[in-house]
Amino acid sequence: MRSLRNWLVLGVVVEAVGAAVVVVAGGSVAGRLARAALVAGSAALTVVVLRRWRSRWWAAAALPAGLVGLVAGAGVGPRHLLGGAPLTGLAGTVLLASGLLVTGAAAVGVVRAAHGWARLLAVPATLLALVVLVPSVFAVAASDPPPAPLEGRSPADAGLPATDVRFPARDGTSLAGWWVPSRNGAAVVVAHGSGSNRESVLDQAAVLADAGYGVLAFDARGHGDSEGSGMDFGWWAEDDLGGALDHVASQPGVDPGRIGVVGLSMGGEGALTVLGDRLVAAVVAEGATARVAADDGWKPEHVGGRLQRLMDWWQERLTQVLTDASPPPSLRSTVAASDTPVLVIAAGTVPDESRAGEWLRSASPESVELWVVPGAGHTGGLSSDPRGWEDRVVGFLDRALAGR
Fold first, then answer.
1. Distances in Å between the alpha carbon of 184 and those of 254, 315, 389?
2. CA 195 to chain centre
3. pTM above the 0.90 mark?
4. How many CA atoms lie within 13 A of 257 on its CB side?
5. Could you read off the pLDDT of 329-382 as tens digits, one per residue?
6. What fold does the segment set 155-291+328-402 form as a domain?
7. What would the pLDDT profile of 92-149 be if each residue is shown by its tens digit?
8. Where are the domains of the chain?
9. How big is the chain by its Cα radius of gyration, in Å?
């Protein structure tokens, strides 16, 4: 047992080093120092308990540290390592490895301490841990995504006469984008998905610009050249898209009453969020499914579906702790509260998207259209069916915005 105790102490110390690097990666100096002090203090307390606690259950003292390291490392490490933040990614990967070590060693110590029937509790305890840990990893990953830098594709590559622009989100965060002037008096804001930037929506922007629309393709905060911290569930969408709408409405040749939003994935969910905005006259949402627990209404009622709802509930609660953003209203509630025309596009190869689309349409059948693109993957409507996407999207916008 002495060697197990030593392994746990070593693992907790290594965890603390990895965690310290991760938590000081951003924020104010005071905030960084406070977080580093918290990590160091927690690790020191755990080491003292492991060294001095003589109960047979002493190994349980390391379980909280191991589980936190496991979740934080899994959410931050590999993704940042591959996504342009090597120092944070390396520290997160160390945190993940040490978290696995501490959790495994602590679990061995607890099982050894248990006698008889008590060891049977390991099975439900493991299942409970999975229910808690899996959504926790997603919450950490979404709350602290890696940067999504521009990779060099320009509007000229898509034949767009665009200019670089900067504008404030409604909370003042500086956002970057490309603006193509309008030729028909109407305009569209194009919003990308998580883990990407405005380069990923250039093809959609080109189709809309060719139809005469002014187009603003912009980087959500924490993505591309925009400032701020990213958030993969899109909880900043109201401020970011609101700022984009304000910028478009101020452009020469744009009628403020003829502005729409086209969003993909996270951007599509954000587009639905701003349905009630005074500047939004139409919305196209492709690949939108869910981002808060209240969006789970389309999920099945069997045991698996209920378990997923429970996990989503916990994911949302933890995410609220990890981010400064507030959880938005459910997608269906924003659709139900508005009569603004909406086109929902779902991937034919992703059943969840069509189910979510039907759920959204049922909230307002008179204002919501649903197009399921046969053979398309997530946000792959344009690439799978270019002519169909152009006909559907431009036709919808023409009716809603251009009055054709």
1. 8, 44, 20
2. 8
3. no
4. 2
5. 999 999 999 999 999 999 999 999 999 999 999 999 999 999 999 999 999 999
6. Rossmann fold (3.40.50)
7. 788 788 888 888 888 888 777 777 666 666 666 656 666 677 788 778 878 878 888 8
8. 2-113, 155-291+328-402
9. 24
